[in-house]
Amino acid sequence: MKKNAVFIAFIVLALRAICQSEDFNQLPALTWKFNAANAFVSAPVIDKGIVFIGSTDSNMYAIDINSGNIKWKFKSGGQIRSTACISNDKLYFVCGTGLCCVNKLDGKLLYNFKTGGEKQYDVYDYFQSTPVINNGKLFFGSSDSCIYALDLESQVLIWKYKTEGIVHNTFAFGKGMVFAGSYDGNVYAIHIESGKLAWKFKSLGHDFFAKGEMQFSPTYANNRVYIGGRDYNLYALDAEKGFSHWNRAFPEGWVTSVTLSPRTDSVLLVGTSDPRILLCVDGIYGQDIWKADL
Question: What letter would DSSP give residue 34?
Fold first, then answer.
């Protein structure tokens, strides 16, 4: 039996307060909740009063942010574990058959770019790649081990680069390159225009995860690519040459996210899984600034 999934919305003023980094005077109140047939794994995207979110029940939903009512839903060809990407009136996301593009106003399918299909690596492989737009191109990864670059307007494949493992992270960009991690244990730097390999970096690996699968999404800043892998390490890689400036081991669990501080790119906010701690880290030297238990 499938478990019901509930998407919960709080008052709009609370959402605005979060975006503006304001403190709450009181706890937000429940405004509405939405039930789907299966779990929500991807993150919601809000645009012009509409919440767009995909579910593992294979539907992409457009929900009115004020009322919680469905504006439309689109049935795709498989589970949606990809967060949507919006460009003008188009909504892009990865589903079971590849990349889907629908009209964000009515949910009608505009095109489906088919890849080799999607699958989960294991139970810890929660997400699909989230499409990213850069310099007129649309980039995403797939379970077929490929990194794809499509022309945003014509939907024509510009290039694809094949790795040796599933590619399920969200890419970063810098120095004219796209940076991506693969479950083969490598981080790849690919030239945006040509699709040629600039460099690749192999993770150290771990007794439990010998490949050192690079599952999590990279972040670019300070001429470095920051990324965590299943080998319990956080890496700071040189964006131009691909060597490691430093790496830090987290023996108790994985580094699942690296976010830049809103005040300076040289400060990183690092989220972990099993240790359940949030770290503020100096991005240049890798040293802790502070730590918070969650």
Answer: E
pLDDT of residue 284: 95
Question: Which stretch of DSSP H or E encloses residue 39?
Answer: none
φ and ψ at 185, to 5 degrees? 95, 5
Residue 47, Cα to own-chain centre: how many angstroms?
A: 18
Mean pLDDT of 51-60: 97
Report how far residue 259's alpha carbon sits from residue 179's, in angstroms, rounded to the nearest whole number.
15
Task: Give the separation between CA 34 and CA 51, rounded to whole angstroms.
Answer: 11
What does the pLDDT look like over 187-212, one tens digit per residue?
Answer: 999 999 999 999 999 999 999 999 99
- pLDDT over 70 at 14, yes or no: no
Angle (nearest 5°) at CA 195 between 193 and 201: 120
Residue with tokens 């770290």: 279
Closest by Cα among 210, 228, 219 to 272: 228
Distance separating alpha carbons of residues 291 and 280, to the nearest angstrom: 6
Mean pLDDT of 121-149: 97
At residue 12, the 3 state secondary structure works out as helix
Please tell me the predicted confidence (pLDDT) of residue 202: 98
Helix, strand, or coil here: 250? coil
- pLDDT at residue 21 tops 80: no
Q: Which residues pair with 87 in a beta bridge?
A: 90
Task: State the burial class of residue 248 (Cβ atoms within 10 Å of its Cβ: 0-12, 13-18, 19+).
Answer: middle
Mean local confidence (pLDDT), 53-80: 96
Q: Are 113 and 92 in contact, with CB atoms under 8 Å apart?
A: no
- AA identity, residue 272: T
What pTM did the predictor assign? 0.90
